[in-house]
Amino acid sequence: MLEDLSLKIDSALKKVRGQGRLTEKNISDTLREIRRVLLDADVNYKVAKDFIESVSAKALGKEVIASITPGQLITKIIYDELTLLLGGSHDEIKLNGSGITSILVVGLQGSGKTTFSAKLAKRLLDNGRKILLVAADVYRPAAIEQLKILGAQINVPVFSIEEKNALKVVSESLIFAKEKNFDTVIVDTAGRLHVDEDMMTEVSGIKKIIDPTESLFVVDSMTGQDAVNSAKAFNEKVNYDGIVLTKLDGDSRGGAALSIRAVVGKPIKFISNGEKLNALESFFPDRLASRILGKGDIISLVEKAQESIGDREVEELEEKLKKNKFDFDDFLKQIKLIKKMGSLSSLLGMIPGLGNQLKNAKIDDNAFIKVEAIINSMTRQERKSPKILNGNRRKRIAKGSGTSIQDVNRLLKQFGEMQKMMSKFSKKGFGDSLANFKFN
C-alpha cells in the first residue's frame, strides 16, 4: 500500500537526517524533493503546494531540542500535516438508533461498489444489525447476480425485481424492509464508465426516495486524479457524506488518497483492500500517515488480530506453549487465523519499518498453501509427533501434497526451530515467533 510514495519520502528525508541542525537551506532542499515526490505520485498540484508551504512554515519556526534530531523533528511535522491533509480525525459511519438506517452507495462502474456493499453488510451484520441489500443496478446484466452471490456468502438477503426501474426497486425495497423488520438497508446503485447526466438524475432520484442516513461515494484509488475529479463531480450533484477508497492495497503512489479529502472536503470513511468480504477497514488519517512515513500501523494490526482470534483460543494457545505441546494441528489453526486477518502483504505493511525492508520482496499471498497441503497430508499421529517422520513417511507426504521431499524436510526443520523459539515465549511473544517463521 503506497509503497513508492513511502520509499521516496523516506529517501527525501535522508537529506536532513544527517544534519546537526535545521536550517533554511536543508529544509528547503528536503521539501523541494518531497514536493517533487508528491507531484510524481499524482497528488493534486494545489494540494501539494499548500502542504509544502505549511510544513515549511512550521519547520522554520521550530527549535531543535537536545533530545531529538532535525530528522525526527521534520518527520513529526510532516506526519502531523499528512494527518491533517487526510482529514485529521476518524469519521465513523452514521447509524440510526431506531427505525431504518438507509445507506446509499454510489460511484462509477468498476469502482467496486457492489463488493463494497457486501463488505459493509458483513461488517454491520457482525455488529448485530439486520441487513437488507438492495440491487438497484438494473442495467449491468451481472450486477444483480453478483450481489446475490455475495449476499449468500454472508447470509444477507438481496432485494430485486424483474423491472428495469431503479426508482421502483428502491421504493419497494423500503416497504419490504419495514414489513420484515430490517433495521439497515444498503442500496447498490448503477454506475457508468464516466459521469453523465442520466446517471446523476437517477442517483438524485434514489436519494430523494430513501433520504439516506449515510451516502457513500466509492472510488478506485488507483485511478489517481481521475478519482478525485469524479469524486468532485459526484459531490456537486449528489452531496454525499463520505468516501470509500477501494484497491488501496494495489496503489503504490497515493495521489487519490492524499488529494481527495482536501479537494472534495468530505471525509474518507473506509478503505477496501482485496476481494475478501472481511477486507474492509475504517479509515484513520493518523494511521495512514504513519504507514506512509514507514512507521507501520500496529493499532490496526492488533485490531485485526482481536477480530480474528478469540480469548479462548489465545488462552488455549498460551497453555500449550507453556507445556511445550505446540504441534502441527495447532500450527494449522494459526495459519487459518492469519489468513482470516487479510493478505500477507497488507499485514506485513502494518509492522513498523518492515514495509521499506520488503520493498523488493515479492509477498505471495498464497505462501501458506504449500505448508497447509503438507500438514494435511500427515496422519494425526504424525502431526502430534513429527519425530516419527522417517524417509518413507516423508516421501508419502510429499506425494500426497504435490510437493517435493525437500519441501517437506524444509518445513520440518523450520517447524522444529520454531518450537524451540516458542518454548521461550509467553503469549505476548508468540506473534514475534510466528512472524520470524520463513515460508519458503
Topology:
Elements: H1 3-17, H2 24-40, H3 45-60, H4 70-85, E1 101-106, H5 113-126, E2 131-136, H6 143-153, E3 158-159, H7 166-179, E4 184-189, H8 197-210, E5 214-220, H9 225-238, E6 242-246, H10 255-264, E7 268-272, E8 280-282, H11 285-292, H12 298-308, H13 311-322, H14 328-341, H15 344-348, H16 354-357, H17 367-376, H18 380-384, H19 391-401, H20 405-422, H21 427-435
Parallel strand pairs: 1-4, 1-5, 2-3, 2-4, 5-6, 6-7
Antiparallel strand pairs: 7-8
Helix pairs in contact: 1-2, 1-4, 2-3, 3-4, 4-11, 5-6, 7-8, 9-10, 12-14, 17-19, 19-20
What report would you give on this structure?
By secondary structure, the protein is of the alpha/beta class. It has three domains: 3-85, Four Helix Bundle (Hemerythrin (Met), subunit A) (Up-down Bundle); 101-295, P-loop containing nucleotide triphosphate hydrolases (Rossmann fold, 3-Layer(aba) Sandwich), CATH 3.40.50; 301-435, Signal recognition particle, SRP54 subunit, M-domain (434 Repressor (Amino-terminal Domain)), CATH 1.10.260. The chain is 56% helix and 9% strand. It has an eight-stranded mixed β-sheet, sandwiched between helices. The longest helix has 18 residues, at 405-422. The radius of gyration is 25 Å and the shape is flat. The chain starts with a helix and ends in a 5-residue tail after the last helix.
